[in-house]
Design goal:
Blueprint: H1 3-26, H2 31-41, H3 45-50, H4 52-56, H5 59-63, E1 68-77, E2 83-94, E3 100-106, H6 112-128, E4 135-140, H7 149-163, E5 172-175, H8 182-196, H9 216-234, E6 243-246, H10 251-262, E7 266-267, E8 269-272, E9 275-278, H11 285-297, H12 304-308, E10 313-316, E11 333-335, H13 345-353, E12 358-360, H14 369-377, E13 381-383, H15 385-388, H16 391-405, H17 411-435, H18 442-460
Parallel strand pairs: 3-4, 3-5, 6-7, 6-11, 11-12, 12-13
Antiparallel strand pairs: 1-2, 2-4, 8-9, 9-10
The structure holds NADPH dihydro-nicotinamide-adenine-dinucleotide phosphate.
NADPH dihydro-nicotinamide-adenine-dinucleotide phosphate (NDP) is lined by residues 176-179, 181, 220, 248-253, 272-274, 337-339, 362-364, 389, 392.
Length: 464
């Protein structure tokens, strides 16, 4: 690198440092949000150097401030007549390139910091899809686990009774996330329709029979694997024959496993918050069908897999252990698909020690920053969430298009579009990494490419 360029990068870095100090001061205690902002900002020193207009337009300072945060009370009554009160949120983060778009998460851990991190990530992920969608996220600290269908319905109806006045097909279009699947989207949509008196594409992830898109349930997992295949293809390799660790056993994990099988790879693990199962014989299609029934219909625990299939072992989660033994299992590739901060530095060391050559994020921010740096420095191909798992929101945007047209595409049509979107995200990320001096670093590439699109739109629209 030329001395003058090095000086420029240093100047960019000090701009980023000053910016981060300001963000930390204004958002003390929002750990997950600060982690997400820092991860993006660390990639942007070169961009700020080349675009002084972003500095004077205070684009970075504006993009970390949500356009609107809505918080509301969600009271509901359980099957025994007891009243419960949960918190509902919607973070409408950025609408520079389209209506706010992003999922709803129902999980006891939900708080404003987690939703701000997810909403912030969503802005750049959505920009990478090339489709006209802004970024948002929402949810509640409600725990659907162990609740009856009627309780979940009453909760969803109460949640939507407030949310409905803030959303709309051209304003904000929520979807699912952890704890919000087809059942919850149905209850939420029913209540919206009743309150707004209109049948409109206000939520995505709907059932096919009433406005959903084919391939939407599969899209995040399929897209993650398409992205992984593109990364391997770029270095003359393929997924064929690879033994893959998968964490989680929900929507993203299930369809990651399915597409891995389609492409000749073998998933050998799945998990839930209780622990993980390792199946050295591989999770084949019949076993995957059994997992889908366990998780989506019977709503059971993954522990039961080890009782059902000989040769599989179950390891209970141990929060005090400092690392997750799942990432110490011998394999060729890893697909974290459960939740944020699943892979720490020790886990990354185990993956590297076992010569795992590919880590692709199906979940949002599953890899801690130090672990991510270590993997990339060690030459592991690393697919960051905002690029790799963008297939879900991309097909959500295709669902919005189909709703506007009052038309539904075939399975093949949607899958072809998903494949070409994932290829385009891969190319944009690779090109931006090259142009900004980090060839092969998809984390930097995705941050830069996503940010540039949003920043340019914000500049065009003035100080708003
Ligand atoms: P689901 O609710 O369908 O599944 C989540 C899975 O992760 C479950 O197996 C769950 O186990 C496990 N899990 C959740 N929280 C924890 C935790 N704290 N510790 C360990 N395991 C946990 O969610 P999705 O599959 O939809 O989402 C998974 C990830 O993918 C999330 O990060 C989400 O933001 C991301 N994502 C999802 C998209 C989608 O289209 N659905 C789109 C893009 C990203 P348990 O049942 O025990 O809770």
């Amino acid at each position: 690198m030329l001395v003058k360029d090095r000086a420029k990068t240093q100047a960019g870095s000090s701009l980023v440092d000053a910016f981060m100090a300001e963000v930390r001061e204004r958002n003390t205690h929002e750990e997950e949000f600060l982690q997400a902002v820092e991860e993006v900002a660390a990639s942007l020193s070169g961009v700020l150097e080349r675009h002084p207009e972003f500095q004077s337009g205070k684009v970075l300072q504006r993009v970390v401030e949500p356009e609107r945060v809505i918080q509301f009370r969600v009271p509901w009554v359980d099957d025994f007549g007891e009243v419960h009160v949960n918190r509902g949120f919607r973070v409408e983060f950025n609408s520079a390139i389209g209506p706010y778009k992003g999922g709803l998460r129902f999980h006891p851990s939900v708080n404003l910091s987690i939703l701000k991190f997810l909403g912030f990530e969503q802005i750049f992920k959505n920009a990478l899809t090339t489709l006209p969608i802004g970024g948002g996220k929402g949810g509640s600290d409600f725990d659907p686990k162990g609740r009856s269908d009627n309780e979940v319905m009453r909760f969803c109806q109460s949640f939507m009774t407030e949310l409905f006045r803030h959303i709309g097909p051209d304003t904000d279009v929520p979807a699912g996330d952890i704890g919000v699947g087809g059942r919850e989207i149905g209850f939420l949509f029913g209540q919206y329709k009743r309150l707004a008196n209109e049948f409109t594409g206000v939520l995505t992830g709907k059932s096919y029979g009433w406005g959903g898109s084919l391939i939407r349930p599969e899209a995040t997992g399929y897209g993650t694997v398409y992205f992984a295949a593109a990364m391997l293809e770029a270095v003359g390799k393929s997924l064929e024959g690879k033994r893959c660790l998968v964490s989680g056993s929900g929507n993203v994990a299930q369809f990651t496993c399915e597409k891995l099988l389609d492409l000749g790879a073998t998933p050998i693990s799945v998990s839930d918050s209780g622990g993980f199962v390792h199946d050295p014989d591989g999770i084949d299609r019949d076993k995957l069908k059994w997992i889908m029934d366990l998780k989506n219909v019977r709503r059971g625990r993954i522990k039961e897999y080890a009782d059902q299939f000989k040769g599989a072992t179950y390891t209970a989660a141990d929060a005090s252990s400092g690392s997750n033994p799942l990432w110490g299992v011998d394999a060729d590739a890893a697909f974290p698909c459960a939740t944020q901060n699943e892979i720490n530095r020790t886990d990354a060391e185990h993956l590297i020690g076992n010569k795992v050559g590919l880590v692709v994020e199906g979940a949002n921010m599953p890899t801690l920053p130090q672990a991510q740096d270590l993997l990339i420095e060690s030459g592991v191909l690393f697919g960051p969430a905002k690029a790799a798992n963008a297939g879900g929101v991309a097909v959500s945007a295709l669902e919005m298009t189909q709703n506007s047209m009052r038309y539904q595409w075939t399975r093949e049509e949607v899958d072809d579009k998903l494949k070409s979107i994932m290829r385009s995200i891969h190319q944009q990320s690779a090109d931006a990494a090259d142009q900004y001096g980090s060839p092969g670093n998809y984390a930097v590439g995705a941050n830069v490419a996503g940010f540039l699109k949003v920043a340019n739109a914000m500049m065009d629209q003035g100080v708003v």
